[in-house]
Description:
Blueprint: H1 2-27, E1 29-32, H2 38-55, E2 64-66, E3 76-79, H3 86-91, H4 95-105, E4 110-118, E5 128-131, H5 133-137, E6 144-150, E7 161-164, E8 175-180, E9 183-187, E10 198-199, E11 208-212, E12 217-219, E13 230-237, H6 244-261
Antiparallel strand pairs: 1-11, 2-3, 3-4, 4-13, 5-12, 6-11, 6-13, 7-10, 7-12, 8-9
Amino acid sequence: MEVEKKNMELIIDKLKLNKFVLDYKKNGWIIIKNFFSKKEVGDAKKKINNFLKKNYKKYKGRDINFVGDEKKFSRINTFHRLHDYKWIKNLAKENKIKETVQSLLTTKNLELRASELFAKPKNYGLKVPIHQDNYYWNVIGGNALTVWIALSPSSRKNGGIFYFNKSHRKGIYPHKPSYAKGSSQTIKNLGELKKFKKVYPKLEVGDALIHSCLVVHGSHKNKSNMSRKGLTFQFKSKKSKYNLSLIKKYEKKLQDQIDLREK
Length: 263
């Protein structure tokens, strides 16, 4: 009986994963509820806080962004090099993350591009302009995604992510400089997005929000009295190459914006 029960659980898990894959391909994003347990989230928050408190002053420029000009720990809005932390790299290799991403990208060979923290402090967390990740990443073919783990509840009220449903099917839209911290480009003609439904996923602690690098998304300022924290992992197929000439152009545009902000 135990063997039969175990086999049935495996079949159910397989069916759920198949549905996630279909929804991901259809909409460009999915939510997996309770992907991390409360304990796993608590451990992650404690370890990330400890790492940042010890190291955040070593980072500057594009690697870390603060709300306002004060470079205090409590004012961190985004940190873009969490993958420098060995514990995070090991976490990215856990089976539930690896197997889910392998299914969504339809490949066994994964590459962790980066890991980031989106702290979005209460009352003043920064907005993220409407954009596509692959405008920054330039992964040829777009076989890449972000796994976004909710370290706190996230919704429209506290600056949660919004998506333009199914917008990943249209390729890369033209972008222009946004001059925003942590997200330097925004879609040039927002009128082109009117044909897509704008959706605001609601997440509880431990939920995973996974989106394609091609889906159009952004978020509003956090004016609420509750921070909106998320841990992200960016993956691509190891076989997918980068468009190096486009990366070079993007890097120049990014540096120009950083230079202007720091004047």
